[in-house]
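does this look right to u?? fe (iii) ion version
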Amino acid sequence: MTPTDDWIIPQEWSSYTAEQHATWDTLFARQAKLLPGRVAPAFLSGLEFLRLAKPGIPDFEELSERLMKATGWQVVAVPGLVPDDVFFDHLANRRFVAGNFIRRADQLDYLQVPDVFHDVFGHVPLLADPVFADYLQAYGIGGQRANGLGAIRNLARLYWYTVEFGLVQTTDGLRIYGAGIASSHSESIFALEDPSPNRIGFDLQRIMRTLYRIDDFQQTYFVIDNFEALLETTLTTDFAPLYDALASAEDIAVDQIEQGDRIIWRGTQSHAHAA
Ligand code: HBI
Ligand code: FE
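got this back:
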């Protein structure tokens, strides 16, 4: 891959306006208040280690320097969504791509493209955790393979239901670790407290068959036991035969309960599979 097709752009940290830094601070304060007791302890440790409470939009160079010391990951700026192969190449090489722009101050809860708050506040804290850091790299390597096997559609669901919208079981109860939840004020409450969505134990094959929605809160969340188990499953599974099997399997609807599901909470909006 040549330097011109990696989609990396300068963050141009000095170009942010005072208003843009203030938007970060507002979003940060709101989540920092809400997340203790709701988010995985490793997420809070990451925030602290990376000094993300420092006011203003983080400077990716400074952030990468600290992150590099913890796990060898870097944060690089991109203009928005990048093509799948580019995305996977970065992850496989322990580079996390983050949008360098921030949402408008009058649209704090409206997001069409992942911005710097979602990408950095939501994703980067867990990259300071050695096990989660290895999982995201393994996902990137797996993505490169899935690309060649025509199975990105299936693998993308794993990213969705873990990295973006995952919950984890702890001795103190369910906790958030997915960035899509942790960076959203309303979904941080909904995902843990609302009776309507299902919470189902992690199952790789089940997840890779499950549709997802990008326009509303999730109707099913998958719950991992811990990051070690997630990484272990990912590293020890031979995905190629799974993709073959999945090619002829039916998709599972977002609100569907399947036979064999390890149900932690049956959502009030759930539907049993019509067998
Ligand atoms: N690009 N910047 C950016 N961020 C993402 O999360 C992202 C992407 N490109 C592709 C992608 N995600 C997903 O479609 C892959 O997980 C399949
Ligand atoms: Fe994301």
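The first strand starts at residue 74 and ends at 78. idk if thats expected tbh
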